[in-house]
Specification:
It contains 26 helices and 36 strands. The chain has 818 residues and is of the alpha/beta class. The protein has five domains: 110-178, Orthogonal Bundle (Arc Repressor Mutant, subunit A); 184-264, no CATH class; 284-468, Rossmann fold, CATH 3.40.50; 473-519 and 578-712, P-loop containing nucleotide triphosphate hydrolases (Rossmann fold), CATH 3.40.50.300; 723-815, Ribosomal protein S10 (Alpha-Beta Plaits, 2-Layer Sandwich), CATH 3.30.70.600. Strands 14-15-13-16-17-12-18 form a seven-stranded parallel beta sheet, with helices on both faces. The chain starts with a strand and ends with a strand.
Length: 818
């Protein structure tokens, strides 16, 4: 009987592929194991085993697998089921989910290796200079990689040379699988068995009377081992004894010390004073906690709506403590990496070394180690805190899943596929694990709050701040009137500056929010009106003063700012608008004695960029922190007395049906950073339209009023949650062909969905990375089958793909578009 295995490759292909295996391999292979398989002409890829069976493929002859890479499954069955749901729901391939989910080091690929052909005699006179260089190198070593050949020939295009040598039978080409992950090994030493007894050690110390450095090293190792009872790091011994590594090596050579290489995790957090104590919840927290428990007993997800600084995190900790006491794993999802640095310390204070962190700032090797710790249910990874990618970790005993700041759009993945929403994917993951799921926010999304109102979620509320601290006092500043009366200093109104001076005099810290990074979004010539635009995207270049650069925030293109206009040649370039960098510069002029800091994408690119800025602010090394929306998301600063919002209108006037909801959430969240201890905080919002309904609702903390108004508007104009939205983006470098294809596709979709199809319409930024874009929106009414709608869309796409002139147009699906 023949045996076969269906595998998923980490490439965007619709179907699984079938490979031939032996009976022994069929008995050994389990779903979730990695297998190296040949694909294409010569390449070898890592695939994930899905199913072993006896049915041969009908469309092609099954190849044999190359290698089984795992002894036990790397991915469990619940993960595979969750990944399949992600692929189906978000209309992408299973391979795209695998590629996004697995750390890159697990996806082993083959490397092309060039070897000499020993079976023929080579006529050196027939070889070109570059060919001879390679041939000569192969005489001295058995094999060369493509990278070696690039270095030997000093050329980047080496494929023609390799093909020529192949044609002349001088070389052979093979594929070798290599693994990227390498465990971190740390040198340790301990006393060898010859000197394990005190008598033998004392005799040796007597012999070292003329070698004081070696004697010092021996004595320090004895002291360190007495305290710790195991092998000691060489680096620690060198530091404590003051001896050099050469002294340690000489003692190893004399068999006094025994050297060991011990495997160590790359991510090791600093030890924090562990407070093993019972949590003392306030009456309001306890009431919310009991309500959450009621929801869990009813097997429902729970939405915790708690105002800013109401103490939601302490409630989370109480729930986490119960879960880990039951021996279950916990996943704590956050929208921003910036939040992890504060929470890690707080979690460690309560739960010791049971905390693991997983996000994109970690290196490939670090992510592999966290993956393995979760897979093997190690105690150091019983609580995992991370951004949306941590949903893919191999939990096998998940008991509690917390989605903090559930309203945040950062939970939505936009590029590449799968374009999933981590909150929704978390609800499905919790259901598969039969785990408890808690969504928390001070400003819940319209959809989540409606689900709670309708009874789909259990609702818990915390309407008062912890310790009965008053909600911040919010005041709207009319900068239209201030500008008319010339009462502005730069981008600061007199009232805002006055309160900033008062707060600084009272030794309080300040946060200023401006949701645009860089110095200015536009540099314009006042003579001819020309502004420099990105050659790859349909946007103006943003000016970054610290590098004297004009930079595109979509594709990364950058150029130096010239002294004169490229269009007319006049030296009349001026900036329009302002970003965080310009605010920081103005603050240095207005408050020269205050220490200012900036937190945006430019200042947090490094691995520990977030951590350094947050720590400096917590330690009062920064008086005024300027930032983008990074500073709005759940950060807890105890000495912030005042928050200033530089311009609220840029949020309100965005062409998006969620603009008002997002504005309310963002402004309320940033206002919530103020006055989190005894004293009432102050918040000042600068705007050209202080009578705007959303700003009035923010100033009075009227979430229910905002929710009811937005829900009514969306029901009237048919937007979520009244309907589901599926956006199709068409991309092509040919503008005319793209428009032609978009019109054809929209017309075909209307035959199925009728007037529920909107578009085609180019987006606000209609070209990104040299691709022109066009959007089609499909509305799916509540109650209609979403899966049937997707099948109908796929059928239309098959017809679209069959038309030759449209073959260069790519379709991108965004389900539940936000």
């Amino acid at each position: 009987m023949e045996y076969f295995v269906d595998v998923a490759l980490a490439i965007p292909l619709e179907k699984l592929f079938t490979y031939s295996i032996s009976k022994e391999e069929a008995d050994f292979i389990k779903p979730g194991m990695r297998i190296a398989v040949p694909f294409g002409k010569k390449k070898i890829y890592t695939a994930i085993a899905i199913q072993v069976h006896t049915n041969p493929p009908t469309a092609y002859e099954a190849k044999s697998i190359e290698l089984i890479l795992d002894e036990t499954p790397l991915i469990n069955t619940i993960q595979l089921e969750h990944w399949q749901w992600l692929a189906n729901y978000y209309m992408c391939t299973f391979g795209e989910v695998v590629k996004a989910a697995l750390p890159k080091a697990f996806l082993l690929e083959s490397e092309t290796i060039i070897m000499p052909n020993s079976e023929i005699a080579v006529n050196e006179s027939e070889l070109t200079d570059n060919e001879f260089l390679i041939y000569e190198a192969l005489e001295n070593q058995n094999s060369l990689s493509i990278q070696d050949i690039i270095q030997i020939t000093d050329r980047k295009q080496v494929l023609p040379i390799v093909n020529s040598l192949l044609a002349k039978n001088v070389i052979q080409v093979h594929e070798r699988i290599y693994e990227e992950y390498k465990p971190k090994m740390i040198r340790h030493v301990k006393f060898s068995s010859l000197y394990a007894s005190d008598e033998a050690l004392q005799d040796f110390l007597d012999e070292l009377s003329r070698a004081p450095k070696q004697r010092e090293a021996v004595l320090h190792l004895f002291q360190l081992q007495a305290g710790k009872g195991n092998a000691i790091k060489v680096s620690e011994l060198v530091q404590k004894s003051g001896c050099s590594s050469a002294i340690i090596k000489s003692l190893i050579d004399k068999n006094v010390f025994e050297e060991l290489q011990i495997r160590t995790d790359r991510v090791v957090f600093n030890q924090i004073n562990f407070k093993s104590r019972e949590f003392e919840l306030s009456a309001h927290q306890l009431q919310a906690f009991n309500t959450i428990k009621e929801g869990f007993k009813a097997n429902k997800p729970v939405l915790l709506y708690g105002v800013t600084s109401s103490g939601k995190t302490e409630v989370y900790f109480e729930l986490i403590a119960e879960a880990i006491n039951r021996g279950e794993q916990v996943l704590y999802l956050l929208p921003e990496i910036a939040l992890t640095s504060q929470l890690i310390n707080r979690l460690q204070e309560h739960f010791g070394e049971k905390v693991a962190v997983y996000h994109s700032k970690y290196s490939v090797n670090e992510r592999v180690e966290v993956w393995n710790n979760v897979l093997h249910q190690k105690q150091k990874a019983q609580i995992t805190i991370g951004a949306r990618s941590s949903l893919f970790l191999p939990f096998s005993n998940l008991g509690l899943l917390i989605v903090d700041e559930e309203h945040e759009s950062s939970f939505k993945q936009f590029d590449p596929a799968p374009r999933y929403h981590a909150r929704d994917a978390a609800l499905v993951l919790a259901k598969l694990h039969k785990a408890q799921c808690l969504l928390g926010s001070a400003t819940p999304s319209i959809e989540s709050y409606k689900n709670a109102k309708d009874g789909k979620y259990h609702l818990a509320k915390m309407t008062e701040r912890f310790g009965n601290v008053l909600m911040p006092k919010i005041e709207l500043i009319d900068i239209k009137e201030a500008t008319r009366k010339k009462k502005m200093k730069g981008h600061f109104s007199e009232l805002l500056l006055e309160h900033m001076w008062n707060a600084l005099n009272e030794k309080e810290q300040l946060i200023l929010f401006q949701n645009r990074r860089g110095f200015a979004p536009v540099v314009e010539c006042t003579t001819c009106g020309h502004s420099e635009r990105c050659p790859n995207c349909d946007v103006s270049l943003t000016y970054h003063q610290y590098k004297k650069q004009l930079r595109c925030h979509y594709c990364g293109y950058h150029e130096l700012l010239g002294v004169s206009c490229k269009a007319c040649g006049n030296n009349t370039l001026e900036t329009q608008g302002f970003g965080t960098e310009q605010i920081e510069q103005e603050l240095q002029n207005l408050f020269p004695e205050a220490k200012t800091g900036r937190m945006d994408l430019d200042t947090t690119r490094s691995k520990y960029g977030y951590q350094k800025i947050i720590k400096a602010f917590e330690n009062h090394e920064i008086d005024i922190l300027v930032g983008t929306q990074m500073i709005t998301k759940g950060l807890d600063f105890r000495n912030v007395g005042m928050v200033g919002i530089m311009n609220a209108d840029t949020l309100l006037n965005f062409p998006d049906y969620r603009a008002h909801e997002k504005s309310y959430q963002l402004l309320t969240q940033v206002a919530g950073r103020a006055g989190r201890t005894e004293k009432q905080g102050k918040v000042f919002i600068q705007t050209y339209n202080p009578f705007h309904k959303i700003l009035q609702q923010v100033s009075t903390n009227s979430f229910e009023e905002m929710f009811n108004e937005q829900l009514y508007e969306r029901e009237q104009f048919l937007y979520p949650p009244k309907v589901r939205i599926l956006k199709i983006t068409l991309k092509s470098k040919d503008y005319n062909r793209l428009n032609e294809g978009a019109i054809w596709l929209a017309k075909s979709l209307r035959t199925v969905f009728g007037s529920w199809v909107l578009g085609p319409e180019p987006p606000v930024v209609s070209r990104i990375k040299r691709d022109y874009l066009n959007n089609i929106i499909i509305k799916i009414p509540a109650g209609n089958s979403v899966s049937k709608a997707k099948k109908s869309i796929k059928k239309v796409q098959n017809s679209f793909d069959a038309i030759g002139v449209f073959k260069n147009i790519r379709l991108v699906y965004n389900v539940d578009h936000i």
